[in-house]
Amino acid sequence: MKFDDMALFLLVAELGSFTKTAEYKNMPKSTVSRHVKDLEDSLGVRLLDRTTRTLKLTAQGELFYQRAKKILQDIDKVRDDIGEEQSTAAGDITMYAPSILFHLFGKWIMQFREQYPDIHLELLNLDSNTRFPEQARFDLILQPGVVNDSSFISRKIADTKGQYYASPEYIRKMGAPNEPNDLTQHHIVFYSLHHGEVPRWQFHGSNEPYFVDFKRQINSNSVETTLSLALEGAGVVRLPLMLSKPYVESGQLCELFNGAHKMNVPLYAIYPSRRYMPERVRLILQFLLDNAQSAIDELS
What we know:
Blueprint: H1 3-15, H2 18-25, H3 29-43, E1 48-50, E2 55-57, H4 59-87, E3 91-97, H5 99-104, H6 106-115, E4 119-125, E5 140-144, E6 153-166, H7 168-174, E7 189-191, E8 200-204, E9 209-213, E10 218-220, H8 223-231, E11 237-240, H9 241-249, E12 254-255, E13 263-271, H10 279-299
Parallel strand pairs: 3-4, 3-5, 7-10
Antiparallel strand pairs: 1-2, 5-13, 6-11, 6-12, 6-13, 8-9
Helix pairs in contact: 1-3, 1-4, 2-3, 9-10
């Protein structure tokens, strides 16, 4: 059963004529007749009694007319509601990100809310054992680092910079590493978003990148926990500048390697599809493209 067949049948019943319906729809009369016959065949009943002069509904046709009219009215309302919801700056946005981003971007989140007060934000932490909420519905994910999942659309919105740090207390006890390979002799607090990541950091030498592998003493998927442990003297950490800056300025953390070996980490916005993107999601994506880099630079 096709909705187009139902709609044509309703029009035939209301106009009382195949000819008038064909003229109204600007199609051949034989096409109208075929659609109605297809509908009758799919239902297994006769909906119309046809004579050379008259056309009237059968008992089953009258029942079907009333039900079909209600169904098509409901479909039109659903289509209108969805179209309005798709095209207006209102509704819910579900966004995942490492919790530290929500913490640091609070001012800019409020700017977005002030611009679009009818958009409601559901902000969920991505600090878990998986990079993506596989079973959850989402509109947007903010993901630092490399994006390997090709089933989503990813777009770089900013670059973040990071550095290596330790507390003055740790350096007094253990000394400071002079070069990256010295890290194998130090305590490391290793931050990673997902379980099982190999404990290693990449550095850039004069010729090509290289990795330094080490034994982690502590592993955490929370950057806030990593920071807290570094402040307590637990070991060497790698942190984004936008998080570590106030602690360096206050003397609670020390930059290692004389400020060399800064790392650059891209920040991506990830979303399910480019097709049929709701207006509210398009607006927050554009807001991030316009503001994320300047926000990171201000914090760094």
